[in-house]
Amino acid sequence: FSRRISSPQFGARLTGKVGEYSIGALFAVVTVRTLTLTSKQPRASAPTVPELGDGNLHAERLGQAIRFRTVSQDGQPPASAEFDKLHAFVRQSFPKVHATLQHETVGGLSLLYKWQGSDPQAKPILLLAHQDVVPVDPVTESRWHKAPFGGELADGFVWGRGSLDDKCAMMAIFESVELLLTQGFAPRRTVYLAFGHDEEAVSAGGASQIAALLHSRGVQLELTLDEGLTVLQGMMPGVTRPVALVGVSEKGFINVELEAAGEGGHSSMPPKQTLIGRLGRALARLEEHQMDASLLPPTSDMFDFVAPEMSWPLKPIIANRWLFGPILRWQLEQANSTRALLQTTQAPTMLSGSPKSNVLPQSARATINYRIRPGNTTAQVVEHVRNAVHDDQVKVAMQPGSGTEPSPVSDVHSAVFSTFGQTIVSLFPDALVAPGLMIGASDGRHFAKVSDSVYRFVPMVLAPEDLARLHGTDERIRQSDYLRMIRFYAQLVQNLDGTR
Predict the structure, then answer these.
(1) Own/partner long-range contacts of 105-108 (Cβ < 8 Å, ≥24 apart)
(2) What average pLDDT does the segment 224-243 reach?
(3) In angstroms, how far is CA 28 from the centroid of its own chain?
(4) Is 411 a catalytic residue?
(5) Residue 333 catalytic?
(6) What is the model's pTM?
(7) What is the pLDDT of residues 25-43, one digit of tens each?
(8) Which of 134, 310, 401, 448 could form a Cys-Cys staple with 238, CB 3.0–4.6 A?
(9) Catalytic one among 82, 132, 304, 497?
(10) Structural contact between residues 488 and 423, judged by C-beta atoms closer than 8 angstroms
(11) 3-class state of residue 143 by DSSP
(12) By mean pLDDT, which of 19-28, 281-290, 333-342, 420-429 is the weakest?
């Protein structure tokens, strides 16, 4: 970004923006606004949860959990026997949890626990994770340095599928509650634990049923914490410190289907305008007419939290979005990863036509996946597609059952968010804290109706080279990170117990 602000395009955009204002006056305003930025970072304090004793013991339990192949695949029933083995393992491994907390099975294989608090007026909190993992592609299995379901401890890591997504969080939550019970902690605020079994398969029967059950019981949560963003190292331009991004919203999603229908026939006598040609033109028009990009919460909130800690020349750019907003948006739109923070994205993912090379299709279809940013709706997406395609011969329809609205944006100025940030910096003292937008989907979206705030955050550090391990080859977690996760959840329960 800093290389681009000296480019001719930057100068042209800036000249058009400032118009009749004098450069000197603008420079003074920009400088004053930049220098008077105040930090939004929480105050760091020493954690009250002590270092864990035998770290290998905790890491080995995570390794054992990884060995259960609780794989979810779309369109296939869950591996019930493996889930049953995992459930028996956690009952044996965490005796105090199972002796103290009420627990039940929901939706066949999902787990719900209740740790009763002493104050019925204090809203409960929910710690959420999922038990299931994605499969390992047999083609890539030979590329793993450690067996993908071996749960091996080696080189300071715990290796295997689920070590990052998301058995690490599930096991760390169990470990943290067992630790608090061992220390004699009794919560004022009721604490729920929930572990869905089908998050990787759209969570049709797990977390959604847990949320519905809590709603039927009249439960209203202060906070739901699920998997999501992490402490990112070396991924924020202009910031040398790690940035702990807390997902306070997530995108919705919808599949839109386009269909062009006709008579078909033999390929030796094609019409001037084929169905596939018509469909191709519709897709081209969609690519030419994308949905608008806007810098809205929570992405704008992220910049507000990070800007005071940034270096020059990015700091004045971010601090003065009233002037540099169009330039900032333009820059963010240049990369796929950052454009997704501004825009409802569209991705044509499936095409179908004739079953044979010499047969004209009677129907040509395309499926387009949209990830909907907060501020847009599924209805707006469908209307946008119809207007952009602008062809009565191409049918536009939402794929049945595919529509999910963007989640509400949790309040980043609340006491709960402040306490959450303080918990982060107590265990990640070098990190900056900022809200963020989760562009993927999580089980947390099901709890918007029963929770005042839903955060999506996993307390671990990820560097750029770690991202490919998520759902990829050589998934692993640093043993030190896992031990810190355990302490984080225990510290969070204690800290939120004092937040009103």
Answers:
(1) 106/206, 106/209, 106/210, 106/213, 107/196, 107/197, 107/205, 107/206, 107/209, 107/210, 108/78, 108/80, 108/197, 108/205
(2) 93
(3) 39
(4) no
(5) no
(6) 0.91
(7) 888 888 888 888 899 999 8
(8) 310
(9) 132
(10) yes
(11) helix
(12) 19-28
